[in-house]
Design brief:
single chain, about 0% strand
Length: about 375
């Protein structure tokens, strides 16, 4: 930074020194040119001074003469302008007079034009009135023509109505004659109707007597209906008792089924019976030949028919007199169901083993379900 400042200062000093060296030569040159110009412009002798004075006087005289000539020309021009202005003023006065006259004429013409416009408006109004009057007259004429045509048509209608009225009058005369004859016929019919009314009144009296008899019969039928309703109530009570008996029988059937199941369970739980049956079953199985096949379809049909018949008998049972027979039939149906199940399952069915394990010596006086199944199987095999 200092180097740049030193360089700038050095340059400035060099320029100043150069300017100081060149300044005297320039000043001398300027002084010389100034002296030469002053010598050229200033007179140096009296002759030159007089010559300059004469030249100045001549220039002044020439300028004065030129100005005098200009003033003279301007005065002449002014005079001409004044004359021209007077002429123009005269012409302007004449034109003003003419203008006033023209304005007066224009005013008169405006008045005349207004009068003519008002007259034209009046004529137009009259024309419009005439047109409206003409249109009104035309409408009135058309209306009168229409009225005339209407009157003609009314006259024609009236003539037609008159002819129609004449025809109606003749028709009414004919109708009156017919009515007179009809009135005579109606009188005859009235007499006949009176006789019919008398006959009808007599018939009505007879019908009233018959109606009273029918009412007595209706009362008797109502009494009979009341008795029948009472009897039907008794029958409903009997039906309810029968339904209660059927429910009781169903409960008995359920009880018997439960007892049979408990007996089977008791037999299964007896180990001694199983041991004896096992000892007996071995020789039986060794000596036993494969039983012939049982007809499953026939057995199933027999079971279905027997079940349907048993259901009907249970529904029809009224008292408990046939309970023993129903129980016997239900036990037989149960044995057939067991046989059908064993037959469907085949030789590997556990029913055969279960029946074989039950000792026949354990059966009481009554036939047990196992005994019935054995008998059913033996009968089917035979």
């Amino acid at each position: 930074m200092i180097e740049y400042a030193l360089l700038f200062a050095l340059g400035f000093l060099a320029a100043t020194l150069t300017g100081l060296l060149v300044a005297p030569a320039i000043q001398k040159r300027i002084v010389k040119f100034t002296e030469d110009r002053m010598r050229a412009t200033m007179p140096l002798s009296p002759q030159e001074v007089r010559a300059q004075k004469d030249m100045a006087r001549a220039a002044y005289a020439a300028e004065n003469a030129r100005l005098s000539e200009g003033v003279r020309r301007e005065r002449e021009k002014h005079t001409l302008e004044m004359v021209r202005s007077e002429k123009l003023l005269a012409q302007a006065a004449a034109i003003g007079t003419e203008n006033a006259e023209l304005h007066a004429q224009i005013a008169d013409m405006n008045i005349e034009a207004g009068d003519m416009r008002s007259a034209l408006r009046r004529e137009e109004m009259k024309t419009e009135q005439l047109k409206s009057a003409l249109a009104t007259a035309d409408r009135e004429i058309r209306g009168k023509v229409a009225d005339i045509e209407t009157l003609h048509s009314r006259i024609n209608h009236l003539e037609a109505d008159l002819d129609t009225m004449k025809i109606d009058l003749a028709t009414r005369d004919t109708t009156m004659e017919n009515l007179k004859s009809r009135i005579g016929n109606l009188k005859d019919e009235r007499d006949k109707l009176r006789e019919d009314i008398k006959t009808a009144s007599q018939s009505a009296k007879a019908l009233e007597v018959r109606l009273s008899r029918e009412e007595g019969r209706v009362r008797q039928l109502e009494t009979r209906l009341t008795r029948e309703l009472a009897g039907s109530a008794d029958k409903d009570n009997a039906i309810e008792r029968r339904i209660a008996e059927i429910s009781r029988l169903r409960d008995k059937v359920k009880t018997l089924t439960t007892e049979n199941k408990e007996a089977v369970k008791a037999v299964r739980s007896t180990g001694l019976a199983r041991t004896i049956a096992a000892s007996r079953l071995a020789p039986r199985r060794s000596d036993k030949v494969a039983p012939p096949p049982i007809d499953i379809a026939a057995l199933e049909e027999d079971v279905r028919n027997q079940g349907t018949a048993l259901s009907e008998r249970l529904m029809a049972a009224k008292t408990g007199e046939n309970d023993a027979a129903l129980r016997e039939e239900m036990a037989d149906l149960a044995s057939k169901m067991i046989v059908l199940t064993a037959t469907r399952e085949g030789a590997g069915s556990p029913v055969h083993d279960l029946i074989a394990t039950i000792d026949p010596a354990l059966d009481g006086d009554e036939r047990s379900l196992a005994q019935r199944v054995r008998g059913q199987i033996n009968r089917d095999e035979a």
